[in-house]
Design goal:
The chain has 520 residues and is of the alpha/beta class. 48% of the residues lie in helices and 13% in strands. It has a 6-stranded parallel sheet, with helices on both faces. The protein is elongated and about 90 Å long. The structure holds one RNA strand of 77 nucleotides.
Length: 520
RNA sequence: GGCGGAGUAGCUCAGCUGGUUAGAGCGGCGGAAUCAUAAUCCGUAGGUCGGGGGUUCAAGUCCCUCCUCCGCUACCA
């Protein structure tokens, strides 16, 4: 087993069905997880749902059910989405689990033992109807000299007892963290925002609520449940067995990467490290705030009615096509835009035409002309060596480097360069012409391409796992070759000399024909 | 208001610490090929690098200013 690698997604708040944004994050995390496995790392990948809080409680009331039943039901949709999209999580956590309550209470007690929690009053403008506090600056005039909430509901000055966390005590240590470890928070633009936020001054953070009870109880403080972020963030530890520091899974801590959306960067880059410092737990190595997915350039929202169901997209375009599109088309870290046209175009151009067709033309040529027997190598020429060199640079250097830096779309560009090189090589070598003039050379060319196609499939497997596996299985590529380190090993000749024969292939990625209007 | 990003070929974007004729992919156009999913390959497209000013032998690449868009500016997750 290689060095451990722990990656997490944010846990989703399931007060609605999963949308494409959830799918995007899960897929991106899965690609990174699969890539690290391909690099030989011992990977632990966690995702899940954050089911506590007021909104779930309200939703449950609306639906005349219990919050727990609602949480179980809604979480199932998220789990199904992950399964449908080939998201290879090792642990799907739901914050209503007993283990999670224990972990949250343990970290609470650790913070309390460190003297960072104290009981005080939380005061503010409270709207009974909204069940929420508003800041002075958020209030709007009601036209009659009074103030109302942004929703137009009446507010009253309310005082509630609350536990507070001494966040202000961590300002300097947090700034030192960002300074000394710029990689802790990425992309850079996010770090800048957080640095300026922290520099502007931190106040103690209210970390408990008494107005509802759907959450983790504060130990020894009846009537208080934890403020959602204490509980939610702790999920990353729960999944490893915390507070049992001797749990075999604790070897995965500290996490290598918390992959989250840009909207919750502050909680992960300010509150979370402060909580951990307080509790005496090592900090995660990196928090990465990805961008949002826009529907044809517009923000998705229920009111506009442009929220897209990821399952429907997967059904329409294929799971691997969707995965590939999201990673290739969106510059990781920035917002991205998608549309049925864009997905179809990208999937057709890169997967169907360039890569799929490459595999199809070569494998069917072998099946047809050599009865499926893998061709022998009769000495490589400089042209073959040049192709192998191009592949090595693209697949064993550039792509891993880019993926390692979370420059996912750039990694895929490197992969495409290798695909292009293979197609150019096919046309230059023209095995169909060699068939008549130089059958031995034709065999070498086909063998070279066979190896190349396998390498391409291995390198891209984190992104299009099902298709890559199907292709590699069809080609008889041994399992131990299927890694970045293994793809360059000497596996071809033994396979060619065995009695393996390749059957007539079917196109890997059928071309997507878009219905006249739209497909999603 | 404050802080921080962004504005580069029709589209999506690369362009690090300033330096030969500003790049890629897609689309478009022309050609080649015919093994393959009408897929592939080759060539091409001449964009005031948001406007203006400045520094420099030399600026998308640094400085100033203006315009446009976006993000952050704590307790809804």
């Amino acid at each position: 087993m290689g060095e451990s690698y722990y990656i997490t997604t944010a846990i989703s708040y399931p007060n609605g069905r999963p949308h494409i944004g959830h799918a995007y994050e899960a897929i991106a995390a899965d690609v990174i997880a699969r890539f690290q496995r391909l690099m030989g790392r011992d990977v632990r990948f966690q995702t899940g749902t954050d089911v506590h809080g007021l909104k779930m409680l309200q939703k449950a009331r609306e639906m005349d059910t219990t919050p727990r039943a609602l949480a179980d039901e809604m979480s199932q949709y998220f789990k199904e989405m992950c399964d449908r999209l080939d998201v290879s999580y090792d642990r799907f956590i739901q914050t209503s689990e007993d283990e999670h309550h224990r972990a949250s209470q343990a970290i609470w007690q650790a913070m309390e033992a460190n003297g960072d929690l104290y009981l005080d009053r939380y005061e503010g403008w409270y709207s009974v109807r909204d069940e929420a506090y508003y800041g002075e600056d958020e209030l709007v005039e009601d036209g009659q000299g009074g103030k109302v909430s942004p929703q137009g509901t009446p507010v009253e000055w309310t005082v509630e007892e609350s536990w507070f966390f001494r966040l202000d005590q961590y300002q300097d240590r947090l700034l030192a963290l960002y300074e000394e470890h710029p990689e802790f928070l990425q992309p850079d633009s996010r770090r800048n925002e957080i640095v300026s936020f922290v520099k502007s001054g931190l106040r103690p953070l209210s970390v408990s609520r008494t107005s509802f009870d759907w959450g983790v109880e504060v130990p020894g403080s009846d009537g208080h449940v934890m403020y959602v972020w204490v509980d939610a963030l702790t999920n990353y530890l729960t999944g490893l067995g915390y507070p049992d520091m001797d749990s075999p899974l604790m070897k995965y801590w500290p996490a290598d990467l918390h992959l989250i959306g840009k909207d919750i960067v502050r909680f992960h880059a300010v509150y979370w490290p402060a909580f951990l410092m307080s509790a005496g737990i090592p900090l995660p190595k990196q928090v990465f705030g990805h961008g949002f997915l826009l529907n044809k350039g517009e923000k998705m929202s229920k009111s506009v009615g442009n929220v897209v169901d990821p399952i429907a997209l997967a059904d329409a375009f294929g799971v691997d096509q969707l995965r590939y599109f999201l990673l290739r088309e969106v510059s990781f870290g920035q917002d991205g835009s998608y549309s049925p046209e864009a997905i179809a175009q990208r999937a057709n151009a890169d997967l169907a035409n360039s890569f799929g067709n490459l595999a199809q033309r070569i494998l069917s040529f072998i099946a047809k002309n050599l009865d499926g027997a893998l061709p022998a190598v009769h000495g490589h020429t400089p042209a073959d060596a040049a192709l192998f060199a191009t592949l090595e640079v693209a697949l064993q250097r550039d792509l891993p480097q880019a993926f390692g830096e979370l420059a996912l779309s750039q990694g895929l560009e490197a992969w495409m360069r290798a695909v292009f090189a293979c197609n150019a090589y096919v046309d230059e070598q023209a095995p169909w012409a060699l068939k008549k003039t130089d059958p031995e050379r034709m065999q070498t060319v086909l063998a070279t391409l066979y190896i190349a196609i396998a390498q391409l499939a291995i390198a891209i497997s984190p992104v299009i796992p099902a298709s890559a596996k199907a292709l590699l299985d069809h080609m008889g590529v041994p399992d131990d070759v299927r890694s970045i380190a293994g793809m360059g090993s000497h596996w071809y000749s033994p396979l060619a000399e065995s009695d393996f024969a390749i059957s007539t292939p079917k196109p890997l990625f059928p071309r997507i024909e878009l219905p006249a209007e739209d497909a999603a």
